[in-house]
Amino acid sequence: MTTASTHPLVGALVDGRYRVLRHLADGGMATVLLATDTRLDREVALKVMRPDLAADETFVSRFRREARSAARLSHPHVVPVFDQGEDDGQVFLAMEYVEGRTAREVIDAEGALTPRAALDILEPVLTGLAAAHAAGYIHRDVKPENVLIGEGGLVKVADFGLARAVTSQTTTAEDGVLFGTVAYLSPEQVERGIADARSDVYSLGCVLFELLTGRQPFRGETAVAVAYQHVSETPVPPSELVDTVPRSLDAVALRALAKDPFQRYQDAASFRAALDATLEGR
Fold it and tell me: What is the C-alpha to C-alpha distance for residues 217 and 263, in angstroms, rounded to an integer?
C-alpha cells in the first residue's frame, strides 16, 4: 500500500461509531484509515472499499459474507475483524490496528534479510495460516503487504478472504487484464481462477523467496508477463542470488513454489514442519 497525507473522511464519524483520525494507506482494493471506535474507546484500522467496488451489489454481498467468515477466525497471528458495514455508500471493514511495519516496508528498507530474520517473519505467518487452513479458511492473497509486524515484534496476517470478495474467482481475465496480486499468485489461480490451501503455500513460497533475496521470484514489465512466468518458468534457487542462503532453504522454497499443487506442501502446517526440520538439521 502507498501512503498519503489526507483523505476526505478524516474527521468524519462513520456509521455513527468510528471517528476517523488519519489516513494510513491506499491499496488496490481499499483505503485504510485510523479511527477511534467511540463505543468501545479503542483504535481500529478502518478499511474503506474503493467506490467502484462499493457500487457493485455482487461485491457488497460477497464482501459481507467474507467479512463474517473472517470474523470467526481467532488466532494470535491473525488480525481480527471486529465489524463490517455500509454508511452513505461507504463499504467498510473495522479490524485491529497494528502499529508497526508491514513485511513490504521491511523488505523495501533492508533488502534481503538473513535467513534467521526471514524465518522470524515467516514462521508466525505459517502458524496463523496453519490454524486457518485447519479450520477450512483460505487466505487467497498472501503477500508482504498483508504481513503486519507490530512494534513489539508480534507478526500477524491481515485481510483473510477479502480477495474472494473482489470477484467470484480469485483471479479472472477480462479484456486481457489480469486481476489479483500477480507477483504472488499461484499457477492455478492464474490459469483457472481457483485457490485452496496449496495456493496459499505457493504465495508463501514467493514471500519466503523475497525475504531471503530482496526480490520477487518472477519479475516482468507487465502483469501478464509475470503471470506467464508463474505458469511456465522455474525460479532460480535463492542461494544463486544470495550466497548466504543455505541449500536446505533452497529446497524448502522451491518445493513451496512447485507448479503442480500436489508437489507442494499441502498446507501451511506441513510447510512450517519442513522449515522446523530444516532448522533442526533433519
Answer: 18
Query: Do residues 182 and 191 make contact, with C-beta atoms less than 8 angstroms apart?
Result: no
| CA torsion angle 134 198 272 241 (round to 10) | -160
Instruction: From the candidates 41, 56, 87, 141, give the one annotated as an active-site residue.
Output: 141
Per-residue pLDDT reduced to its tens digit, 130-164: 999 998 889 988 999 999 999 889 999 998 867 66
Three-class secondary structure assignment of the chain: CECCCCCCCCCCEECCCEEEEEEEEECCCEEEEEEEECCCCEEEEEEEECHHHHCCHHHHHHHHHHHHHHHCCCCCCECCEEEEEEECCEEEEEEECCCEEEHHHHHHHHCCCCHHHHHHHHHHHHHHHHHHHHCCCCCCCCCHHHEEEECCCCEEECCCCHHHHHCCCCCCEECCEECCCHHHCCHHHHHHCCCCHHHHHHHHHHHHHHHHHCCCCCCCCCHHHHHHHHHHCCCCCHHHHCCCCCHHHHHHHHHHCCCCHHHCCCCHHHHHHHHHHHHCCC
pLDDT for position 164 = 65
Cβ partners under 8 Å of residue 231, min gap 6:
187, 190, 191, 259
141 is an active site residue: yes
Q: Are 82 and 75 in contact (CB under 8 A)?
A: no
